[in-house]
Structures are given as structure tokens and as C-alpha cells.
Amino acid sequence: MTTELLLRNANLWGAGPADVLIRDGRIAEIGSGLQGGAAAVEDLGGKLVIPGLIDGHAHIDKTLWGGPWTPHSSAPGLMGKIRGGQERRPELGIPSADYISALLANMITLGTTHVRTHVDVDTLMGLDAVHAVREALARHEGRITAQLVAFPQAGLLIAPGTDRLLEQALEQGVDLIGGLDPAGLDSDAVKHLDIVFGLADKHGVGVDIHLHDRGSLGEWQYRLIIERAKALGLRGKVTVSHGFALSDASPAVRAELLDGLAEAGVAIASIAPPGRAMPLKELAAAGVPMTLGNDGVRDLWSPFGTGCMLDRALLQAQQTGPLDEDVELALDAATYGGARVTGLDGYGLGVGDVADLVVIEARNAAEAVCVRPARSLVLKAGRVVARDGALV
Question: Which helix (H) or strand (E) holds 5?
């Protein structure tokens, strides 16, 4: 059965006023005065339409969203947060499909249509987080899609047996293999990366490496990742998340790393932390794709966040520049950049693209980021999944 929806009086980002006819989940026509026949009609009154927001770096398995308010109590430092999370998970019942589902609901109403989420795999809970995330996604019946990254949050080499669990996750259909500070946490970058890239090669999946290490240590690991991506032909399938050493690097080293990332087809994922945001203009000029993400939202690592990708785009824009084109570049990272990094096909605002769309009470893209106004409608594959802040 053919399903049609006509969006009248839309203001398409980058194209201006138009009507949009959606048929069977895709954009079928764009023009003026379109006739939809039996199509349902939504008059947008000139509101802005952008492609669905993409959260390219999340940890939804850790969330306490919808649960009791839990004060942040982890010890300082990366290992303090890791151990604090492991110790308190049983007490708080996480990973919880209920909490994950509640967070996903909020993300959907805020316009996120696709998410890449890192999912903890460790020797204390095995694949419980993978199962909880999948259950939560199933409850939303296609309102949002996701890529899962099997993530060794507690370490790989320092937690024997984790490599076998990561492989089990891949055997069960998890989409990517993750890694975490191969040198700074695991103290053997070469061996850590050999395992991660070996699993990627064996199972034909992509790689997403958390890299917090800074300075020359982080720069060296960038080079190792670039080398492996090139050697295994993983162009377009490798992402460095956080990657603070790139923003810290001297101009000469940064230029070298950017050239290497572009040549190897390695992308960047950032949460745009204040004072440590990625040099988005330089990445764009070098042809290195970048996505933005919320990281953890209201969990044992941090009490902050709502899952709003316009908030994250604002954080990036505040560190990229004040011009409208600077702000739009940040929004691009939260939309088209996310699609490039996560490998989404048929994404965008053109005829034939999948109708993952967000209608925003704004006059242009810069205003949408700076004001973060209400999302009037959210569409997933042509289906209205949220309206005025509530799921449909």
C-alpha cells in the first residue's frame, strides 16, 4: 500500500521555500504548489526543515534517564569513572532498557533520527548492555535507528577475556568494534590496536576508537590508527572519537595528521567540549568528515545533558566562529557529517532521499542552532514519530 505525506510551505535548509511530497518513506517530489492527491497534508507555515539529526557518539547504555536523581560520586580521572560505574551498576539496575528507552524517547522528540552508541562489554556483565540497548530500540518500533559499537570501557589488555566478549558481540551482529586509549589505559598501543583492527578485519566491521591521550602520545596513536586503516583498506570505516591530541597539536603536526586522516579516510567524532573542540574549519578544508555526539547523558560519569543535538551543535559553533556559515558548519556536523561518518545511504533533502526530517520553529539554520527552538515535527522514513515534543 502506497503511503504519502505532503509537507506544504516548507523552508528547506539550503534550498528555501518549497512543498515536499513524501511517498513510501522517501522524498518523491520537491516543488511549488504540489498536489498530493490522497496524501495527508501538513502545512508547515514556512518553518525550517533539516535532515534528521544524528548523534554520532553516544553511550545510551549507561543512562539513568527517567530514573532517580543520582549524584555524581565517581573518583576523578578516567579509571575513577570506570571503576565507579562498574561498582554502582548493580545498585542502580543499569544497564536498564527502561532508562535507555526513556532517553531514546527524549532524543526522538528533539529530532534525532539515528545514533551511533558505544555499548560497554566487560567481564563483569558480559553482553548485558548490548541486550538492553536492543530491547530499548525495539520498543520504539523504528522511530530511531542505531549503530552499536562493542566498547571495552574497562580496558582490553588490562581485563583479560574482554577480547573474547568483543568477538561474541560482533558474532551477534554488533556493527562496529571499539577501543579505548590504547596507550594511556592499556599501556600497549600496538597490541591493543592489533586486536581491535584484527577483529574488524576478521568480521568485516568498522572501528571507532576513543582517544583521550594528548600531546605526543596521542599524536603517535593517531599515526598508528591511520597506518592500520590504510593497510586494511578500511577507508570510510574508521573513526577517532574525542581525539584531543589533534586540537592540541602544533600547526605543523596538525597539518600532517589531517593529511593522514584524509588519505586514509579516517573520520573524527567530537562532543565539542568547551576549550577542546575540534578545528572544524580545518577538518572540512582537509576533507576529513566529522560528526558530533552527546557522549553520556545523565549517567554515573556526568549528570549533564538531555540528548539534544542542537545543544551539541551550539557548543561546537561557539568554538568555531560567530558567522552564519560557521554556525551552519556545526549543524552540518550534526547532520550530514554524521551521515558521512556512520555511512548512512540516501540521507539528505533531495528527491529520492529517505524522509528522515525535522521541522523546526526557526527561520534559518543559524537561528535553529543559536535558539534551539521547538521541534514541531520529526519524521523517520516518512512517518511522523514526534510532534511538539511528544512521541506519536
Answer: strand 4-12
Sequence-ordered alpha helix ranges (H) in the chain: 78-92, 97-109, 128-139, 162-171, 189-203, 215-231, 244-248, 251-264, 280-286, 309-320, 324-333, 336-342, 365-371
pLDDT tens digits for 57-113? 999 999 999 999 998 888 888 888 898 888 899 999 999 999 999 999 999 999 999
Here the cell at position 93 is: 539496575
- Surface-to-core class of residue 207, CB atoms within 10 Å of its CB (0-12 exposed, 13-18 middle, 19+ buried): buried
Do 271 and 293 touch, CB atoms closer than 8 A? Answer: yes
What is the SS3 assignment for 50? strand
- 116-173 pLDDT, tens digit per residue, is 999 999 999 999 999 999 999 999 999 999 999 999 999 999 999 999 999 999 999 9
Cα–Cα distances in angstroms (integers) from residue 256 to residues 241, 253, 389, in the given order = 18, 5, 45
For the residues of 119-150, what is the DSSP string, one character each? EE-BTTTBTHHHHHHHHHHHHTTTSSEEEEEE
* Residue 323 CB neighbours (<10 A): 11
φ, ψ dihedrals at 281, nearest 5°:
-65, -40
- Look up the pTM and report it: 0.97
